[in-house]
Structures are given as structure tokens and as C-alpha cells.
Amino acid sequence: MENKGNLYYFSTPIVNCQINGVGTMVRSAQKVALKKNKEHVAETDASAANVVILKPIGYPLTGGLDEYPRVEDTGVFECYARQQWNGYLARMGDYLFDHRMYPDFAYHIVDVEPAESIIGQTTSFIVADDARHGPTFEFTSTITFDDVIGQQMARRKCKLIERYLKEPEIFGQWAPTNVLFFGPAGTGKTMFAKALANKTSVPILPMKATELIGEFVGEGARQIHQLYEHAQEMAPCIIFIDELDAIALDRRFQELRGDVSEIVNALLTEMDGIVEHDGICTIGATNLPDTLDPAVRNRFEEEIEFTLPDETERAAIIVSNLQTFPLPVKDVDTGKLARATDGLSGRDIVEKVLKTALHQAIMDEKDEVTEQYLNDSVARMKITNEPVSVSRMYI
Length: 395
Ligand SMILES: Nc1ncnc2c1ncn2[C@@H]1O[C@H](COP(=O)(O)OP(=O)(O)OP(=O)(O)O)[C@@H](O)[C@H]1O
Ligand SMILES: [Mg+2]
What we know:
5-stranded parallel beta sheet, globular, binds magnesium ion
């Protein structure tokens, strides 16, 4: 292998074999391989295989020259990837080049667990289908429970999930597998799921249900199955399906969204755990629990409500966010501001009150943010949101 900066190129030894003395040839081929990649391939005591019986399966990748190769079979692809990249150092941000079916096709290493580790025979590979639809992964969320203000009930109920993600093996068939977060927009549901992943040091696989509604029939269902397949490889982990109501709408409302029944069926199959899902916790999130398809809602063994912040919580959200302002804040009565923002969600406070005030002060070329800017943005928010605030749309 040649290392050109951060780009890796690979070369495979070409070995000619004759039928006679296959064993000798395989052994010498292995020696060549070990020698050529000495600095990357771990020494092994394994003896060479004498005979390998093969059954034609097909290609691990398909696609024309003008399109991205697609993984046809994740198991076969994994084997193919382990073979060609065995022993190579995987570092986030680097590239791996295919040198067999699609010579020089580059794969960007989006993430690797643990950081900077050697690809080996037990390494799992996850290939996002394409940049738009592939699931994204967050191995390490930086959000902590200290960042989430309030939501005491969610904290209490999530203790069990925490325990499960840390020690899935002790739960057996009694695992808390499907949990629903519901409540008004901007109350911290996504934050909370990320904090949970952070606390338990497990990856979180986020998926927006709206993105599953694709152009092609079967596309969304395929993505759901793929998501669970990936999750199984990474377990213990959290699957976080945001905006669940977009696909799992009660049949009474489905005309609004078109036919999403195949996606719902795929989701039901996975949530039922027809295929074993040890160590996976599915968290669904919605603002509209009452519009969910009862079959889907029924699969969630626990429903956790997120509520709008009370006055003390609003004050805490204001204080913690003002501390991160790039300009100094002068003479702000946070208690008064908390009272004035009654009925607003955490997001409303951060995005519509605090951010707007800061931006206005910056536009006015001020070198500090005064209470007047904050009062003005509260007043503006009340006018623009009348008669119904975003948070109050929750039913
Ligand atoms: N409980 C909270 N504590 C601190 N900040 C909060 C809280 N709730 C909301 N926020 C602020 O609002 C932002 C949005 O929160 P989040 O995305 O978690 O809301 P959500 O409940 O998932 O909303 P949606 O239902 O629209 O998906 C956060 O990034 C944070 O700045
Ligand atoms: Mg959210």
C-alpha cells in the first residue's frame, strides 16, 4: 500500500496457481501477501486453507460507470471490503479506494469506531446508499443531560433505557425496545435522545420519517429494513425516528400523505422484532401522538411526555443560552423575561427570542445586547405568532 497524504492506494499480489501443489501455492501466496503489507497486516498463526469450495453468488456491488455503486448484499460486501482493506488503518476523514470491481472508486470514511483503528476480519462496514438517503450516524453526541432543562418525568423513565443500553444482556425478552417521545415542538425530544446516547456511550442512528417518503415504491420500506440491519451491527444503539407522524398517520388521515402503508408495514415488522434486535432501542418522536396509526402507537411499550417549560425552566434556558452569546449582555432581568415568555417552548425561546435579539444588536452594530433588544423580540414574536403559537399547535 502506498500512502499519499491521507489517501490510500492498495495493491494485491498476483499469484499464479497450478492445480498440482495448490496447498504450496496458497501458502506462498499468503506469505507474499503478509510480506507486501507487512506494516499493515497483523502477524497470524493461522494455517493456509487447502481447498476452498465456492458457490457463485453475484456481485457485492452493482451500478454503471455513470452512477454510484450500490451494495447488493451487505454480507457479501462486508467480506469483499474486509479482504481488500484488511490491515489498513481507518481514520475519520480519510479515503478508502476500491481496487477490484470499481478501481479507484473512493469511499470517504465518515466515522470509525474506535477512532483510528485497524480494519480486520471482524470489522463491520456500513455504506450509506447515497448521500441523500443513507442513514447518518452519530457515534458520539456532545449533548448531555445537563444541557436539557426540566423534563423530569422523561429523566426518570429513561433510567431504565440507560440500564438496558449499558447491559442489554440482563434484560432478555423483557427489554424496553420501543419508546415514544411525544410533546410540543421544541421541547427537547431530540436533545434528550442524543443525551441518552451520550450518557450510555452508544451510537445513535437518526432517521427523519419525512425522508422515508421517496419517489419510488418500496424505497422507504427498504430504508427501514436497512436501518435496522445497520443497527444490529452496531448494537447496543438507539434508532431515533423523528417526525414519526409523517409516516405512521392514522388511516383516517393517510390521504393527506399518500400511500405510506408499505413503510408502516416495514416499521411494524421491525418493531415486532421478527428478526432479533438485541441491544437496539427504537425511540420514535412526534408532536401529534393522537394522529398516529393505532397499530404503530400500540407497539411502543412506553410513552414519555415532554412538556413546555415552566417559569423556572424558562429562566434556566434563558440564562444558559445568554452565557454563550458572542456579545456581552447588559442589565437583563431574566426572571422578567421568563414571565414574558409564558407558553413558549425551549426552541421558541432560543431561536425566536434570544437569537433574534442578538442578531438585531449585531445589525445595529452594538457591542452589547441590552434588555430592550430582548423585550422587542418577545413583542415581535407575540405579534407574528398570533393567534396560535407554534408550540400551541400541539394537540
Ligand atoms: N428542555 C430543554 N432544555 C434546553 N434547551 C431546550 C429544551 N427544549 C428545547 N431546547 C432548545 O430548543 C432546541 C430544539 O430542541 P429539540 O430539537 O430537542 O426539540 P424537539 O422536541 O425535538 O422538537 P421537534 O418536535 O420539533 O422535533 C434545542 O436545540 C435547544 O436549544
Ligand atoms: Mg426533534
